[in-house]
Amino acid sequence: MLNWIMAINRLGVGILLVVFSLAGWQVWNLASGRRPEVLSTSTTKTLEERVASLESRVYTLEKNSGLATTASKKTTESFVSLSGGDISSFEWSKISGTDFTLDASLYGKTVEVSWQGWLSGAGSIRLYDSTNHRAVDYSEFASTSGNKVSFYSKALSIWRGQNQYYIEGKTTGGTVTLSSPRLKIVAK
């Protein structure tokens, strides 16, 4: 009977040692930062970054399990007619009556703006952002022929916010005429 009690005591001590060593190992893992799924107090992520990370993980899990579906994003295309006019200056000058206001965020989150129209005469035209005092990147078009030619820009660099714009131009000789200008706004 004594042997049996000693065997139970040894078994109990062995179980306690196993439990304490496993618990100690888990404490060591937490203290040394070896468990990436547990955020330690020394993390440098902001609360917003943590929430965004968790939302991304949840969405991925839901998508993989079939609970979430990706909505098809509809692309819309809009046109905004602008005023044209004539210019006879050899320096960049405003084409009278071409002022307009644009806030691309009113069309959606992801917006691409370009412009198009017709140019007669030898010279150049471009959009000018009078709010931010800068020529709009990728808006310049130049023609060396005296014929009427159509132009289409690539995506413009439109800055955020409600900004005032106008069209400006210059000539290499004679008069340059801009007709039927318009903005093409593609929202995704």
Descriptive report:
The chain contains two helices and eleven strands, in the order ααβββββββββββ. The chain is of the alpha+beta class and 188 residues long. The model has no long low-confidence stretch (mean pLDDT 82). The protein is rod-shaped. 27% of the residues lie in helices and 33% in strands.
Short description:
By secondary structure, this protein is α+β, with helices and mostly antiparallel strands. It contains two helices and eleven strands, in the order ααβββββββββββ.
List the helices and strands and how they pair.
Blueprint: H1 2-32, H2 47-65, E1 76-81, E2 85-87, E3 93-94, E4 100-102, E5 111-120, E6 123-129, E7 134-135, E8 141-143, E9 148-152, E10 163-171, E11 176-187
Number of DSSP helices? 2
Largest sheet: 6 strands, antiparallel
* Topology-level CATH name of the largest domain: Jelly Rolls
Radius of gyration: 34 Å
Strand residue content: 25-35%
Query: Which descriptor suits the 3D outline?
Result: rod-shaped
**How many strands?**
11
The sequence of SSEs as H and E is HHEEEEEEEEEEE
Q: Tell me the span between the first and last alpha carbons.
A: 82 Å
Average pLDDT metric: 82
User: What is the CATH class designation of the largest domain?
Assistant: Mainly Beta
How many structural domains?
2
Percent helix, as a range, is 25-40%
Give me the secondary-structure category. Answer: alpha+beta
The CATH architecture category of the largest domain equals: Sandwich
Unreliable residue stretches: none
